[in-house]
Amino acid sequence: MIIKFSDDLKKEEIFANGDELAGIMGFDRQNGKRVLFFPLNKKVFVYSFSNPVLLTDNYRISKLNPTLRDTLFSLYAEKPRIVEYAGVSTLWDNTHRGVWCPSIDTLLFAKCLKKVLEKRSFDDVAEIGCGSGFLSKFVLSKGKIKSIVINDLNQYAIKSAKDNIEDKRAKFFIGDGLKLIQKKKFDLLICNPPYVPREESIDDNPYEGIGLLNHLIHDGQKYLKPNGIIITNISSLCWSIVLKEKSKMKMDLLGKMKVPLKINNILNNKSWLEYLKKLGLKKDFHDGYEYWQEINIVAFTNI
Q1: Residue 130 belongs to a domain with what CATH number?
Q2: Of 77, 82, 212, 255, most Cβ neighbours within 10 A?
């Protein structure tokens, strides 16, 4: 399956590819002979959504005619999955255990990052928590950089990044990213961190705990060269917490988007949900979803 987004994120196109062409799309005969397998670069357009707010919008899919609905649900259940934006793509498969496929906030991050990369060059770059590796690959593809340090705690995230990035400028490290970058200063540091706060968080869940985000906002300048930049993602759910005190760095909002809060282990956890309501989360049912958040891509500059 290939999910391709337009540069302005206003259009999402879905393609079947590879063996899905025979197994799901019915292209199982050629010249009178049965065909079971196709290369990954062989694709067929299936459907497109306008103004997407999720990569997988189950509500909108459920509104389609039955055949198209079931076809899309079948495709979304398949791996590998390729996500493409602005000519950059990453492949996500079963070997990338515990790694999340690029999401809508990843692509908004990339869209904002592109504007920054077009304005200046960056010698030394780092990404903390690379996940699939999409953003690091995007930097390497779109930016004028000399080197990038790519880090994650999850060894399979690093595997995903290595599987998707073939570039001598990239160096990969497994472990605590903050400890890793303490000995060097960077021109650009990117991080799409956990941004959903939780009362008494133990920071062992990819969705909860805002300690890393808070640290980067208020102490991140020590990892930067003069005029160095940190780009990160701040949800409306934690904005009042992490920005209760003003950052020492210059802050600029690069872009924002309102998206559904579609995280089942939050929505099914009454105490967690009540905590978020105290922080301003309100029930606002529309377009198939009860709760929404605003994701904000923000740059902090060490001036």
Answers
A1: 3.40.50.150
A2: 82
